[in-house]
Amino acid sequence: MYAVAVSTFAFIEWFLSAYRIHAIGFSLGNAEALAFYTITMVGHFFFFNLATRWPKIVRCWDKVEKIFLSNPYQPYGRRLDTRVRIVCCSWIALGMIEYSLYLCVAFIGIYYTLEICPDSSAIPESFWVEIRSHYLILNELILFIDDQLSQIILLSCASNLYFICLQLYNSFKNNYTDLLSTFYFWFSLLFVIGRASCAILCAASIHAASKTPLKILRNVPTKYWNLELGRFTYSVTKDTIALTGKKFFFLTKGLLLVMAGSVVTYELVVLDQVHDGSGSSENDTHP
């Protein structure tokens, strides 16, 4: 009922914002509220859709989790369980982080299992078959989770980028003379940038964790190399294991640089337009 009430009020706010824009005319500045409530309603729809599939997600998640709560991963699984409880108690509002922790620590659990293995000569080929199968199961889980979350991820990244660019646009259009307005501008801009960066870095840690077994695999002497070890190494090296935004982009650390480049390009274009507008005004005033 709470979610339905919030969605209803969001629709009312969206309707009022659309009516206001219809009355006074459309511009980037006065479309901010309309964009916000549009993103809110679309997000509500995506989360309602996710809720209907949640039992299936939990069953799939539980099936994979049982593997990493048993030997040889049991010590790391128990530690992860404690971490997640701490995160949940401390940051309820950041609930999605706990799922990234599960995925990351599962990959790191594979790394630690390889790290404590005995001498490479004593490792049977069946061990590499088992580890590789678990690695591929994790990969399949991430693909499944990505199918459920990718549209929400795309909406989140797009909205963060939009509001960062909007705040920069407002900085050229508005003169913040008093302390309160200046504080609000910098706080809101840094908040959106920080939120976007934290979300991307959290999700990108899955990709980084999926590559950690390479630190061990590359140190295995050539004389102990076998077919299954080669297949495992190839999978870790070549597969891009990461969440995506509807397959348009992968959530890796490099995405932060791409978004930063887009923001800088946008700022330069706006700055150029502002300077051209100022020059035109001066020429009109002083022929």
UniProtKB/TrEMBL annotation:
<feature type="transmembrane region" description="Helical">
    <location>
        <begin position="248"/>
        <end position="269"/>
    </location>
</feature>
<keyword id="KW-0675">Receptor</keyword>
<dbReference type="Pfam" id="PF06151">
    <property type="entry name" value="Trehalose_recp"/>
</dbReference>
<keyword id="KW-1133">Transmembrane helix</keyword>
<dbReference type="InterPro" id="IPR009318">
    <property type="entry name" value="Gustatory_rcpt"/>
</dbReference>
<dbReference type="GO" id="GO:0005886">
    <property type="term" value="C:plasma membrane"/>
</dbReference>
<comment type="similarity">
    <text>Belongs to the insect chemoreceptor superfamily. Gustatory receptor (GR) family. Gr5a subfamily.</text>
</comment>
<feature type="transmembrane region" description="Helical">
    <location>
        <begin position="33"/>
        <end position="51"/>
    </location>
</feature>
<keyword id="KW-0472">Membrane</keyword>
<feature type="transmembrane region" description="Helical">
    <location>
        <begin position="86"/>
        <end position="114"/>
    </location>
</feature>
<feature type="transmembrane region" description="Helical">
    <location>
        <begin position="184"/>
        <end position="209"/>
    </location>
</feature>
<keyword id="KW-0812">Transmembrane</keyword>
<keyword id="KW-1003">Cell membrane</keyword>
<dbReference type="GO" id="GO:0033041">
    <property type="term" value="F:sweet taste receptor activity"/>
</dbReference>
<protein>
    <submittedName>
        <fullName>Putative gustatory receptor 64a</fullName>
    </submittedName>
</protein>
